[in-house]
Design a protein that fits this description.
Length: 347
């Protein structure tokens, strides 16, 4: 350890931004986020909004699966509950966005508690099957409860208004999405250092030992399900405003698997991994489309051939990271930082 890495107080040792260098680059990053909507084109703004929503939802799944070890195949269902809650409140009662977002998160959290209630007695594959059942039930409800969800036609969502300004474009939504994503990341980073966050990790690593230490397994697991579902519900509400329509086909089982891929590739149990995974897995389809566009003059069927390969690439990425980098992109980032911290005296 280098001179200057030692901390004199516990608060300094537990700080999120520990060094002046980290604080400087964090400031640069947030300054870039603030300037981005003024210099980027519409397509890049669209991708940034999509990444922001993915970060929020992936953070919720990481809190549940990565931090607490509770496998979930129903994350898309939690997003759907949040999306339909926000859509119904906005379209039928004209609720503003600052009401619909917490309401969507609360509705999804309530559904998550119901789904997570059996988690005290089941774990592993059995818990995955329970959450899969919740996903199937939610999809059935989205389609058949037409009086609430609009059935297969879905619900059209009006553009939200914030401080009297209509957020009718992707560029206008950029600010709220990034702000909510940043708040979610900040909360998760602080939660990891708190007693409830440490309880999550203890339950994940050794649940019996955690119970012997006085941690309530039932309360901790329910808290993880509620919190992870809250994140998903808020992301679903933002997705509803982003798409301007909510239909059952927006929240299939494949979306739940996609989010599992995001947290595995990014790094299970890490806050920064959710961000890296969201960026990486959102850009993969766009890169494939770009390659198809470049190949189209030479191979007219390139788009038709490469489009179905997206799912294959997702699967290959999951297997590849599990085999060669099980700690995900977060570990790659940590190794890179350690390299430059010692450079040029690496050995």
């Amino acid at each position: 350890m280098r001179i200057g890495d030692f901390k004199e107080t516990y608060a300094a040792d537990e700080a999120i931004l520990r060094t002046p260098t980290v604080r400087f680059w964090t400031g640069v990053f947030f300054a870039a986020l603030a300037v981005f909507p003024f210099v980027a084109g519409d397509y890049l703004i669209y991708l940034a909004d999509l990444v922001g929503i993915t970060v929020i939802s992936a953070m919720g799944l990481n809190l549940l699966t990565g931090f607490t070890g509770q496998i979930s195949l129903g994350h898309a269902a939690f997003m759907g509950v949040g999306a339909y809650t926000a859509a119904a409140l906005a379209s039928r009662w004209g609720a503003p966005i600052w009401v619909t977002l917490p309401a969507a998160g609360g509705a999804a959290a309530l559904f998550g508690v119901v789904v997570g209630a059996p988690s005290l007695r089941i774990k592993g594959l059995y818990l995955a099957m329970a959450t899969l059942a919740a996903q199937v039930i939610a999809e059935f409800a989205f389609i058949n409860l037409e009086g609430i969800t609009g059935g297969i036609r879905g619900i059209n969502v009006p553009a939200p208004r914030l401080f009297g300004v209509e957020l009718a474009t992707d560029r206008a939504l950029y600010g709220p999405i990034v702000a909510v994503a940043a708040l979610g990341v900040w909360f998760a980073a602080n939660l990891k250092r708190s007693a409830p966050g440490r309880a999550f990790v203890a339950v994940r690593d050794r649940d019996i030992s955690a119970e012997l230490m006085g941690i309530s397994l039932f309360q901790t697991k329910l808290r993880a399900f509620a919190l992870g579902s809250f994140y998903a519900g808020v992301a679903g509400a933002l997705w509803a405003y982003f798409m301007r329509i909510v239909t059952p086909e927006h929240f299939p089982l494949s979306l739940s698997i996609h989010y599992l891929a995001v947290v595995i590739v990014g790094g299970l149990g890490t806050v920064v991994g959710s961000v890296f995974g969201a960026v990486f897995m959102t850009l993969v389809p766009e890169v494939l489309r770009g390659l198809a566009s470049l190949a189209r003059p030479y191979y007219p069927q390139a788009m038709t051939v490469l489009s179905p390969l997206t799912e294959v690439v997702f699967g290959a990425l999951i297997v590849g990271f599990l085999l060669f980098e099980p700690h995900g992109l977060a570990e790659v980032w940590q190794r890179t930082k350690r390299f430059f911290r010692l450079w040029p005296f690496v050995h």
